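I wish you would study the pair of lines that follows with an eye to the fold:

===
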Amino acid sequence: MAPYLRDEAFLCGHGTPLAVVRAHTTREVAAAVRVAAAHGLPVVPQGARSGLTGAANAVDGAIVISLTAMDRIIAVDAAERTAVVQPGVITATLRETAAQHGLVYPPDPGSWQISTIGGNVATNAGGMCCVKYGVTGEYVLGLEVVLADGEILRCGRRTAKGVAGYDLTSLFTGSEGTLGIITEITVRLRPPPGESRTVVASFASIAGAGNAVAAIIAAGMTPSLLELLDRNVLRAVENYRPMGLDTTAEALLLAAVDTGPDGRAAAAAIARLCRAAGAGEVHTATDAAEAEMLFGARRMAHQAMQQWAISMFPGGDGGVIVDDVAVPRGRLVELMTGIAAIATAQGVLVSQVGHAGDGNLHPNIVINRADPASVDAGRVAFDEIVRLSLALGGTCTGEHGIGMLKTGWLAHELGPVGVRLQWAVKHALDPAGILNPGKALAPPPGENGMTPRQRRAGP
């Protein structure tokens, strides 16, 4: 059971499960949930365990239900532009299959080559192209869900339009396995946008890059991608896989626009706005291969930072705490300069990378895992970054979700009325509290997020 204990979150603990069920069908998932419900056992659903918040971490005495073996693409309807898939389908596999039918599945989380569609839906995952094409939830039309008592629910639709009843599909999307276990997904596909034109601009200050982002958005432009990488990320990527990136720049802005009648003009306009914001060098990719190389640099940022952190400390004890915050795009510069100040105050290295076009950053906090003082400084920096984001009118998570990592911050963001309503929904669908306990929701006063059986047993 060791591989099923946790996801990729560093600061989150895990328990020891009672058993792991590798389900192949919805009926098997329902059978396992009925057993758990009969004995008051917690149930933890898992996909690829590539998440960064502890949402898939096992808890003591749980039945872990792994959905990776439910990996069939059941149907693709090119005429209706839909696909029906099981939750264990890898995101990249769905995108490849859609392409074979002349269509695209736009959501592209950074872990798209290993993450599963079920996990993407459970966390409402984002990605690099969200600035134009939106997050996972915008492509989910219908779901099959196993409820807390083992019953099987079908919600949503396969039609282009439909407003019958409450929107239960959206309710389960992003619920992190706390309301039900998703066993089938109907997704929307769309025609391919064609090739894109890519612009890369280097800046002598991170604020300059932020000002360029604000200018691009204020100009009414909708790039298909608008990403930011600071100097620490550039150095990490270049160390990990040399590709000639400008590691002297304080920040690099990567933008793409879909080609078409206005594609060339839009790329030229972005280049002008970057120069006006102080870019030292602006370059437009000459072909698709060069553009893909630049996209690849952005996609490998997390892995490159992890490897760089390991190399920074003796014994390879370096690690990265990945934060995930979002603010109104007009306050992005304040967020970025504030993060830099927090890093200085706490004496930790914090790299900044993220979806600048959405105001969504992923600060990477580098720590020495063998040094408690370093870990504590990283925790403080993590919390200060979240606090800053909320103070700027933002959110504690743009796309990674809450998991175990940010339950307290969710309560702070929602307020007492919001927390009460969220728990009312949870209790209505999972009255015994067996589904993924301790995840996503801040425990209400007097409780600790455990199941009734766990609370009776004591610590």
